[in-house]
Design brief:
Blueprint lengths: L1 H17 L38 H8 L4 E3 L9 H16 L4 E7 L6 H21 L7 E7 L10 H7 L1 E7 L1
Helix pairs in contact: 3-4
Length: about 170
């Protein structure tokens, strides 16, 4: 067993002697200072759009500039030439922003019974809806609601107030 220990010790000494390193005759050149690499500017994010989101109620109202409301004569629900211009603008908007849906609200002035005014508001909303559909807006994107006299745009019991309350209003929905 001693013999193996002597052989192991001799082998270890020889192995360590073989690993001895001699210093190199010449040293490598010193590193050269280089100019710093030009930094690449970080990409700037795309600017966030400001203003109302296209297809939203705020964007629609801004684009319509008052043409989101049409007005009717007393006890009438027919679309006249002025209403047709406003509804064409609404249809063009809705055809451009195809993901937008709308509710058309029908309104009446305070004269007449509650039931009569609700029915008249419904006829006004449906007349506007049908006109938009005739211009190419998908019927599935439109719904109607009648408020009758319940949501007046103008208060008062005179012809001026009544004229402003006989209306159909198009409102974008998300």
């Amino acid at each position: 067993m001693q013999r193996y220990a002597v052989i192991l010790a001799a082998t270890s000494v020889l192995a360590l002697a073989a690993c001895k390193k001699e210093p190199p005759e010449t040293l490598p050149p010193a590193p050269v200072a280089s100019a710093p690499a030009p930094s690449t500017p970080a990409p700037t994010p795309a600017p966030r759009p400001t203003g109302p989101q296209p297809g939203s109620q705020a964007h629609f109202a801004s684009a319509m500039a008052g043409r989101d409301v049409i007005f009717f004569d007393t006890d009438k629900y027919n679309i006249d030439s002025e209403d047709a211009v406003a509804l064409r603008a609404q249809a063009e908007y809705m055809l451009q922003y195809t993901s937008a849906g709308a509710t058309i609200e029908g309104h009446a002035d305070e004269r007449g019974t509650r039931e009569y005014n609700l029915a008249l508001g419904e006829r006004r909303a449906n007349a506007a809806k049908n006109y938009l559909v005739s211009l190419g807006v998908a019927e599935s994107r439109l719904r109607t609601v009648s408020y009758g006299e319940e949501r007046p745009a103008a208060t008062g019991s005179n012809e001026q107030a009544w004229a402003r309350n006989r209306r159909a209003v198009t409102v974008m929905i998300d």
